[in-house]
Amino acid sequence: MLLFYQPEIGNGVHHLNEEESRHAVKVLRLGTGQEIDLTNGQGQFYKARITEAHQKRCGFDISETKTVAPFPVHRHLAIAPTKNIDRLEWFVEKAVEFGVDRITPIICDHSERRIVKRERLHKKAVSAMKQSLKAWFPQIDEAMPYKSFLNQAEADQKFIAYVDNDNTDYLSKLKKASGSHLVLIGPEGDFSENEVRLAIESGFTTVSLGPSRLRTETAAIAAVHLLNL
Prior knowledge:
Helix content: 25-40%
Number of domains: 2
Shape: elongated
CATH topology of the largest domain: Alpha/beta knot
Oligomer: single chain
CATH class of the largest domain: Alpha Beta
Radius of gyration: 20 Å
Distance between the termini: 26 Å
CATH architecture of the largest domain: 3-Layer(aba) Sandwich
Strand content: 25-35%
CATH superfamily of the largest domain: SPOUT methyltransferase, trefoil knot domain
Number of strands: 11
Largest sheet: 7 strands, parallel
């Protein structure tokens, strides 16, 4: 099953955007009358038939709609960007494959990377959503300073995961099976003591992801996986 993404279907749009049109017509060589599968990234899958095989504006008519319920837990990961941007993009790709609702890059005291191109992360997320056949597209935020994020962070359960060998409060045990969950993941140099203190004062609970010391992107993937269990 090849899945195409058109977020504007619900607004009466019946054509693929230029990038998706080029892929369908020029790369896959799909023609008028052939069936395609689509999603709007807002919980709907569509069966459709191509009405105009144009590589810049591929038109279609919808023949069937299927609605997919959202996951019972809202999964929000706030992650400090990795120095190597490829690792952050890998995280976004794999997090979407597992299932995630929101990703926020946060700039911390020990962050070695402070600029993140949201458009690149968005493209990685779109590709992963289509590859893993997801009907829901996550919210990808602009990078923001850690303190600013804490001031507006909301969730039923808020966690900060950092290296603390004495902490045996595991995320797998503390997270509930419903509601909204937010997990903070720090940079390669981990959160500073002040950042941990500020998180606790903002209502975050300190948690462990296990006894191993994990890379930033690995820790974030572990958190996403645990929230999906």
